[in-house]
Amino acid sequence: LSLKFGDIGNLKGLVIRLLLTTSYYQLSVQHWFSLHRLQLLYNHSVQATFNATGIHAPASYSFHCEHVSSLPRYHALLVPSSANDLSQLWEVTFIGFQIQGFNIQEGRFAYARDCASFFSPAILMGLVMSLILLLVLAYALHMLIHLKSLDRHYECKASPAYFAHVKDNDMGDEKEPLRNSGNESYELRNQQSGKIYI
């Protein structure tokens, strides 16, 4: 596929040539096309060559990408073919790039396969944050399930009753001996209830 621009400034007969290939993949049971190479021609000779990486789609689809570029900030889908080539001196960027090599019907692009990755950094961070929130929620539910009511807790684990020590002289006042058939017993004079500390 050749895009001819004609004369632009000092560039005589500028042409951008896109070399497309098609292959059949048994795993997907369909033909795929890929952009194999991009060449820049002017002055009637090839001046720069870039190898294309990751630009492919099923043959019945088109390929779309917001940026196809040789610049690292756009993920550099175009890579210079060699270090000695003049392509090192060129920076190529296509904006709103869409291409379809085969099975074109009515001069329109077919459904586009986009180059956007399914696992971008933003999506990965969202997944990590969701996982952290799920772990916190699971821990909170675990704690709520194993929480015991206060009533049952105090019924089962009540401390033993503590009776205050009563002095011996008070005990002497409060008890009165009963003489009755040779057995000695005592009766409390004060019928007050004792204090219990828990």
Automatic annotation (TrEMBL):
Where is this protein chiefly located?
A: membrane
Sequence intervals crossing the membrane: 118-141
Do the record's keywords include Membrane? yes
GO terms for MF: ATPase activator activity
V-type proton ATPase subunit S1/VOA1 transmembrane domain: which residues? 117-154
Question: How does the entry describe its membrane topology?
Answer: Single-pass membrane protein
Does the record bear 4Fe-4S in its keywords? no
Provide this UniProt record's keywords sorted from A to Z.
Membrane, Transmembrane, Transmembrane helix
Outline the extent of the V-type proton ATPase subunit S1 luminal domain.
1-102
One GO biological process term is: regulation of cellular pH
Q: Name one GO cellular component term.
A: endomembrane system
Localisation per UniProt entry: Membrane
Any Pfam family matching the protein? VAS1_LD
Give the UniProt family note. Answer: Belongs to the vacuolar ATPase subunit S1 family.
Please state what the protein is called: VAS1L protein
Recorded source organism is Dryoscopus gambensis
Upper classification of the organism: Eukaryota, Metazoa, Chordata, Craniata, Vertebrata
